[in-house]
């Protein structure tokens, strides 16, 4: 059947993890504890709310609902400041080439992200026009590894799940793609993304021949 491609945003298209890290670290420091880059690994693909819960666990802090909501807003305000200056130089290597190739071949392209800031980021880096649909943290109720975000994206581009190819940098995202019955392509390390159907270090390792093979595969 006809194929569709679904991209995660953070860690696949742009490296925003460093900005998320700075914003979470600032909050942690304000609350009187440290937050390390290693701990930030656990936050990849994880919703803002869940991240704050984990952060407060790390700091051993109990928050009232009101404090919790304030800190959610504070973190996001800081994050928005960090990403304000993003431009196309922050698109990860060869991502644009991949999107361009798919566009030229009339392949539907969707975004499937947990972020509520997905659309403004795509606008800032000038990639918004490649996407036929954006499904992000504003549209889902269940976080990855639940497949909801990718199933909604597939429906929006009218491609059956078995014919969707998902690019993801988080294990939760790979698991979400797998349980949606989609083809999962991990971007990162084999050791972390061990459940993926394919793993590449980054898009410079993905050839147009490989994309063509995926597009023409008849398996499903
Ligand atoms: C992505 C990132 C996570 C982030 C989540 C929510 O999945 O990998 O680190 O927490 O989006 O992002 P948001 O922009 O809504 O705070
Ligand atoms: Mg990601």
UniProtKB/TrEMBL annotation:
Specify which residues bind Mg(2+) according to the UniProt entry for this protein: 8, 10, 168-169
> What is the enzyme's class at the highest EC level?
isomerase
Q: Where is this site: Important for catalytic activity and assists the phosphoryl transfer reaction to Asp8 by balancing charge and orienting the reacting groups?
A: 113, 144
Name the UniProt key words of this record, in alphabetical order. Answer: Carbohydrate metabolism, Isomerase, Magnesium, Metal-binding, Phosphoprotein
EC no.?
5.4.2.6
Q: Where is the active site?
A: 8 (nucleophile), 10 (proton donor/acceptor)
Q: Which GO terms describe its molecular function?
A: beta-phosphoglucomutase activity; magnesium ion binding
Q: Which family does it belong to?
A: Belongs to the HAD-like hydrolase superfamily. CbbY/CbbZ/Gph/YieH family.
What protein is this chain from? Beta-phosphoglucomutase
